[in-house]
Design a protein that fits this description.
With about 180 residues, the protein is α+β, with helices and mostly antiparallel strands. It has one domain. The strands form two sheets. Strands 1, 2, 3, 6, 7, 8, 9 and 10 form an eight-stranded antiparallel beta sheet that branches.
C-alpha cells in the first residue's frame, strides 16, 4: 500500500513539474534574436515605475529601465527603454514570478538587455525586456574584457561570454535569418 501511495505521489509531482515548466519559454540565442529587435549593452541610467489602471481592479505596475550604450544588433550608440511587469509605484508594490531580481536592474548596473515590441501595456511603454528575467544579463569587467554573466541552460545566454563574442554570435544569427 505504501508503494502505491509513493507511486501516486511521484506521478503527481511529475505532472505538476511538467505543467509548471510549460509556462516558461526556454530560448537559445538564435530564438531570442529572432523574437527581439535589439539587444542593448550599456549602463542603466534611469529606473522608474508607472501604474496602468485599465479600470476596476485591473491595475498593473511596470518598471521602465533606461539603458545608455550600444545596440549589439546594429553597433550604433543608443539610449533605449525597456519595461517589465512588476515593481513599486507610490508605495504600492506588485511582484511577479518572472520579473528580474532587483540586483539585476539597479541604477548604474552595466547590463545587456534584449528588447521586444509590446502593445497595450502603458502609454509610455513600447518595448519590454523580452522574456522578463530571461532578457536582462549583468556584465562584469575582467582582464580579458567585459563578460556577460550567463544564467544557465534554457536562457539565451547560458554561459558567461565576452560581450565581443556575444555581438559576433548575434551578428551571425542576424545574417542567417536573412
Amino acid at each position: 500500500m505504501k508503494t502505491l501511495r509513493w507511486l501516486l505521489a511521484a506521478t503527481s509531482m511529475l505532472l505538476l513539474v511538467q505543467v509548471g515548466s510549460a509556462c516558461i519559454e526556454e530560448l537559445n540565442l538564435s530564438q531570442m534574436v529572432s523574437k527581439t529587435d535589439s539587444a542593448v549593452h550599456g549602463t542603466i541610467t534611469d529606473v522608474r515605475s508607472v501604474m496602468f489602471d485599465a479600470g476596476g481592479k485591473d491595475q498593473r505596475i511596470y518598471t521602465i529601465l533606461t539603458i545608455e550604450g550600444q545596440d549589439l544588433y546594429t553597433g550604433q550608440a543608443v539610449t533605449e527603454e525597456a519595461a517589465f511587469i512588476g515593481g513599486t509605484f507610490e508605495g504600492q508594490s506588485m511582484m511577479t514570478s518572472s520579473m528580474p531580481a532587483p540586483a539585476d536592474y539597479r541604477l548604474g548596473n552595466e547590463v545587456v538587455v534584449f528588447r521586444g515590441v509590446v502593445e497595450g501595456w502603458h502609454p509610455e511603454i513600447d518595448h519590454a525586456v523580452y522574456a522578463a528575467m530571461g532578457g536582462i544579463y549583468r556584465t562584469v569587467d575582467t582582464k580579458k574584457g567585459t563578460v556577460v554573466l550567463g544564467k544557465g541552460e534554457g536562457f539565451a545566454v547560458d554561459n558567461n561570454v565576452l560581450v565581443s563574442s556575444l555581438k559576433t554570435n548575434i551578428t551571425r544569427q542576424l545574417q542567417e535569418a536573412k
